[in-house]
Amino acid sequence: MSEDCFQLGIDIGGTFTDLSLLSHDGSASHSHKVASTPSSPSKAVARGISELMASIGRPADAITYFVHGQTIALNAVLERRGARGALIVSQGNRDILEIARLRKPDIFNLKATLPDAIVARQDVFEIPARGDDEDFSVADDAIEATISSLPAEIESVAICLLGSYRGPAVEKKIADRLREVRPELYISCSSDLWPEIREYERASVASLNAYVQPIMSRYVDDLSIDTQRVGLDTALQITQSNGGILSASSAKVKPVNTMLSGPASGVVGAAYVAALSGICDAVTLDIGGTSADFSIIRDREPVYSTDAAVGDFPIVMPTVDVFAVGAGGGSIAWFDPFGILKLGPQSAGADPGPACYDRGGTETTVTDAYLVAGYIDPDKFAAGNLPLKRENALAAVGRIASRLDCSVEAASEAILRLATATMTSAILPMMTKRGLDPRDFTLISFGGAGPTHACLLAEEVGIKQILVPRSPGTMCALGATIADYQYNFIRSLRRPLAELDSGVLREVYRQLEQEGRNSLASESPIIERVEVLRSANMRYRGQSFDVDVTLPATLEVDALTPELLAQNFHDTYETLYHNSDPGSAVELVSLRVKVVGRRRKPMLPPARERTNSAKLEPTGQRPIFHSGRPHVASVFSRDDIRDGDRVEGPAVIEQADTTTIVTPGFAARCDGAGNLLIHAT
After folding, report:
1. What is the pLDDT of residue 2?
2. Cβ atoms 513, 473 nearer than 8 A
3. In the 8-state DSSP scheme, what is residue 83?
4. If you write DSSP's letter for every residue of 356-407 in order, what string do you get?
5. How wide is the angle at C-alpha 74 spanned by C-alphas 344 and 445, nearest 5°?
6. I need a labelling partner for 158 at 20 to 30 A (CA). Which of 8, 106, 463, 599 fits?
7. CA separation for the pair 675, 454 (Å, rounded)
């Protein structure tokens, strides 16, 4: 393909919609931002495409590949504005969502209450059947009575029967009958979405899917119409929580797979740009308006989790392991009743936003502290599209200074130190529970404020190298562009490994692999190769938790035996806990398969080289406040930096989508990939 053809990645955020456009031959790269339109997200996407393509003088039909990440389903759950849905369960299981796991949200608060269920109790219906029943004709009358009892306001129905992880027949029969009687309903079967043995978690996944399916379906339809109006004529695709992609039509059916679509895309993009700089292991730092998000990259691949949560609800399906804390640019600084300064999780958001936005907000935020500390230029914020009012920030931070009895600059640093401490309290446990030392990792900073805060966090945690990508503000959009197709499948067996026949083991793995290959073929993707990764959830007999054990990729299916699985479990357990017991019996819980369709990755243009002997020169200087005293920092434009250029701290590096702060004791160097590598000196 030539430069005339482009790949487009988009990330829809609460404040901005980011676009990343790459030519197929790697000769050109463009990025763009437009204000999001929360009431109709597709409008911002269409406008962004029009503006971006107009800026480079190319028509929208030059885009031949389009994929995007979004938080539409996630925000619908967090803001509790999803569809009214019903849940059909086995008799005696009506309270499954309220009972959950009987865990209080705060074990130290005697008055803590459980969150409201995603489906109201009056909309939960029981039938005398289980999902593994061979003869369920006795439930026919109950099924008909349930369908006739569904309120007219119900938009979607989730079905989760006991034992249905063993087979989908009963749930499928109910779904087929629902479609006959109420064809307008959206149907979500737990056995189709994620057939894992845990009943509450399956019910949660099915209910969440039903809750957001009408919203996602309408969004995809609107997106198709709006993009076609601006001339885009290519298949629409959406990133999944597992870092892969799927067609928009599939996302309409299984939107629960896209709950963490946006954050996962950022980690995928970070792993890609890190590899261009020869970095294999990293911690990602994505700071937006509301939160700071962290994840881990090992051997150039994101680390995955099966215990993620969306708001109050578990998502047991494999997702890129992202942990968020309330330390974003809009996080509010406040004093508790004892006069102790606190930060977040409340956020000023985009509207009214921080005090310096001059949109009516008066609360003191992290962005106000950045401005007072001299880290950001009020006239160049968001490429000059959102000028900031320094006097508003001074007034807001001044109120904090009065309570602390210190200068306004010292108060701004106190807020930033508190943000750093909040981030540290997240990053250290996340790594230590995996036996990882953060000093061995590179910190990849992106998002609107990630590069601004990266050195502060690195100083606190002891990280010695930071990577700032070429376009940090559109990293999630870039991640969407380069993501692979990826599908996860599970089969719950739960039995002692000693009782498992090798033939059954191999046959289940073959079936799961074929399901993945069929799903991949149904998307008709253009891929270079298919990779199959196998794992198994196992535990010692009597344990209440299991360990996901990844099997060597070089092992063929015919070589797998229960004894081999047991040995891999003992080895993994020893690595994690240093307390394995090879003489104890091992119990198999589930078998897993991940099928990945690897796409050919688009190339990114290399860093520009100097064509003359001129050295990099600062565009000016300005004072910044750091470590309790003022410093004079040199100001540079990221556009002026070339391959091999070095910038000593204290320094400020400005670009359209972010500001990078190089604090005293650090120095930045541009490498051949165009990334900034910041090292402790």
Report:
1. 44
2. no
3. -
4. GG-SS--S-BHHHHHHHTT-S-TTTGGGGTS---HHHHHHHHHHHHHHHTS-
5. 55
6. 106
7. 14
